[in-house]
Amino acid sequence: MLAEFGVVFLLFNIGLELSYERLISMSKYIFGMGSAQMVLSAGQGLTLVHFSAQPEPFLTQKHTLYIPDHSLTPPQ
């Protein structure tokens, strides 16, 4: 809880020091690097999942999903 307040105060302090003109001048850098970080992180995560994934047993015939019938009709 205390860490959350620290982050809020840090962001508030950065907001006080950052002018609109400086934010506009840094927008290409901020959005470009932010987008690159998201794409690279997603690529690394997908690569890790792809190479470490086990075969999915729920797609084979011997492992079927049982869904019980909870209707109010009597069994026939």
From the structure above, extract its key features.
76 residues; mainly alpha; 63% helix; 0% strand; elongated
Q: What does this 3D model show about the protein?
A:
With 76 residues, this protein is mainly alpha-helical. The chain has a domain at 1-29. It contains three helices and no strands. The protein has helices at 2-17, 20-25, 27-52. It is elongated, with a radius of gyration of 26 Å. It starts with a helix and ends in a 24-residue tail after the last helix.
Topology:
Elements: H1 2-17, H2 20-25, H3 27-52
Structural class: mainly alpha
Based on DSSP secondary structure assignment, what is the total number of beta strands? Answer: 0
Strand content: under 5%
Global shape: elongated
Helix and strand run: HHH
Helix content: 55-70%
What is the distance, rounded to the nearest whole angstrom, between the alpha carbons of the first and last residues? 58 Å
Tell me the radius of gyration. 26 Å
How many helices? 3
Poorly predicted segments: none
Taking the sheet with the most strands, its summary is: none
Mean pLDDT: 79
Please outline what is shown here.
The protein has helices at residues 2-17, 20-25, 27-52.
